[in-house]
Amino acid sequence: MVYLHVPFCRSFCTYCDFYSELCGGDASFRTYADAVCEEIAGREEEIRTSREVDTLYVGGGTPSVLPLDVLSRIVGEIIRARGGVRDFWEFTVEVNPEDIFEKGEAYVSSLRHMGADRISMGIQSFDDPLLRWMNRRHDSARALEAFRTLRRAGVGNISIDLIFGMPQLTDEIWMRTLETALDLSPEHISAYQLSVEPGSALARMESLGTWTAASETQCMQQYGMLCEALSEAGYHHYEVSNFARPGFEAVHNSAYWRRVPYVGLGPGAHSLSGNVRRWNSQHMPSYSYESETLSPEQVRLETIMLSLRTDTGISEDFLREGTDNQSVDRLLGEGALVRADGRLCIPEDRFFVSDEIIRELV
Ligand code: SF4
Question: Are residues 302 and 238 both part of a single domain?
């Protein structure tokens, strides 16, 4: 598994705290590519042996702001480091709807030609006032047109991102958003509850008292609407925030939740190899890295936290070893955990409070 972080955005969204720099023009893209190619050259062995799950995920930031030749050069270097193996089980590129609208079908065809077979598009909402509040670049009409552009270019695996839980998102707007999303029939939908991330514009607004989070009741109601609408439409709810048409569950993300080793390239990217975590510094154009060795207990807790957010849960034996068994039994008795084939899972109707359930166990 290889993850490439593209730390550029044309503007910053209200809620976001991902590492990204404002696009600085062609020279900065090329300097970035030089730095990443140098990193690839130094990590060839890791890249070559990181094929237990053989995926490439290009995320950000906004990968679709990169000129094609820059992305193509980096992907070419990754392939070279893999000994020339061009095929991935899954090759995802995150895109912004406005970039797809502006660059059109030819751009998407070029991504496909490069090997990308899955596109993840950050639509977030189909409500224009909300999109403006989020400081997104696109509006609803452009998101719809961008989606059609992806389809016209032959993309058969599209994931879209949505956000709920803003105080101004009424249930009516949310239902319309879900209906619009389902009309498009994407293969995959990720829907996240808005959270206040330290360092985001939203955190500043909250500390200044100019913004107040939605109530827990509203968020729970909208999560329920999401689960019901997508289940009726035949989506598999396989992780707290992720839904897929059967067979289109994200291979890369699913492996990440199982703690499969991955190589993260680019400034700000993280990597995992066994119990060693590495993170590249958030600095352009040159970046360094630090690493830490996780203790067996840290690995155990991380495994529990990631696994219990998925519908396959965790092995009961694994969970019980080192965990307070009284808590496990109590959660089972309350229906907050259920048994299936020797595994324990959080049932879908408790996914909304999964963080609280997991906290009781770790
Ligand atoms: S949400 Fe995406 S486009 Fe918006 S600032 Fe964050 S990384 Fe950039």
Answer: no
pLDDT of amino acid 100? 98
Q: Which residues line ligand 1 (CB under 6 A)?
A: 9, 12-13, 16, 18, 20, 60-62, 96, 122
Chain-wide mean pLDDT for the chain? 97
Final residue belonging to a domain, choices 232, 257, 282: 257
**What's the pTM value of the predicted model, to 2 decimals?**
0.97
What is the separation of C-alpha 58 from the centre of its chain, rounded to a whole number of angstroms? 10
Residues 6+ apart with CB under 8 A from 297: 322
Probe target for ligand 1 pocket from 62, 96, 131, 200, with the most ligand atoms within 8 Å of CB:
62
- What total number of domains does the chain contain? 2
Helix spans in 82-163 (H): 97-114, 128-133, 140-152
Q: Which pLDDT tens digit goes with each residue over 282-297?
A: 998 889 999 999 999 9
Domain range for 93: 2-257
Q: Which of 233, 257, 281 is the last residue of a domain?
A: 257
